[in-house]
């Protein structure tokens, strides 16, 4: 179950990374992110997208560790960090659901739900499950 959840979470993170890279590149997908107020991301939102890509990479490494693919997944620090990530993902469901952007609500709310679900399963089961 953990490996399936890991695949789901990594696929969602990869998709989110692609979207952020499109924003960084000036593509008109801004209605799906960052509140959806700008069709093309402003320079400040592009900087935020760079930070998001780095965070997604960190999230992926954390999940790979907690799932037992990388070492350290059974440590208290990794377990706690995975629960913090779950809380972050769960809060993003609500934030996307109340976005002013209809497109962001329709697309990102279910994406956030999928990511939160994957992280939850990994947090609960840990390595070797």
Features:
129 residues, mainly alpha, 72% helix
Number of helices: 4
Which value, in Å, is the CA radius of gyration? 15 Å
Shape: elongated
Order of helices and strands: HHHH
Low-pLDDT segments: none
Alpha-beta content class: mainly alpha
Strand content: under 5%
Estimate percent helicity.
over 70%
Main pleated-sheet profile: none
Number of separate domains: 1
Distance between the termini: 7 Å
What is the tally of beta strands?
Answer: 0
Average per-residue pLDDT, rounded, comes to 94
Describe this protein's structure.
The model has no long low-confidence stretch (mean pLDDT 94). The protein is built from four helices and no strands. By secondary structure, it is mainly alpha-helical. It has one domain.
Please render the helix and strand layout as text.
Elements (H helix, E strand, L loop, with lengths): L1 H23 L18 H24 L9 H22 L4 H24 L4
